[in-house]
User: Which sequence fits this backbone?
């Protein structure tokens, strides 16, 4: 895996041919999905990652200017998908990740077949 995947603690699980990417909400990390992943791994390749500043992400990668807007987080999501060579995915975003996924999908609609927003925040 590349720099973005390493910086965001990316994990890819499962054996399916279609990708599903799970983005966690504010104040949590990818472990929030631990009870859902077992139901997905037989049918999908599941991508888990931490938004910068969450979980055990390296604080040296944090840039106050980059992460002063959600566009910085959306750029990270796109970088992860690019490194993993994901051509198409279903994105599930909880809380702030719902908006991160929306912004990323506007920038690169070709990468997203569906967006599922769980309690997405408006900003």
Assistant:
């Amino acid at each position: 895996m590349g720099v973005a995947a390493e910086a965001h603690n990316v994990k890819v699980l499962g054996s399916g041919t279609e990708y599903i990417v799970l983005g966690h909400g504010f104040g949590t990390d990818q472990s929030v999905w631990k009870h859902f992943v077992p139901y997905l791994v037989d049918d999908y390749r599941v991508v888990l990652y931490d938004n910068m500043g969450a979980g055990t992400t390296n604080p040296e990668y944090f840039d106050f200017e980059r992460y002063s807007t959600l566009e910085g987080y959306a750029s990270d999501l796109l970088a992860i998908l690019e490194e993993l060579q994901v051509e198409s995915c279903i994105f599930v975003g909880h809380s702030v990740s719902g908006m991160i996924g929306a912004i990323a999908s506007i920038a690169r609609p070709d990468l997203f077949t569906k967006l599922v927003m769980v309690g997405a925040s408006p900003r």
Notes: The chain has one domain: 3-118. The first strand starts at residue 11 and ends at 13. The first helix runs from residue 3 to 7. The beta strands are 11-13, 18-23, 44-48, 89-94, 112-118.
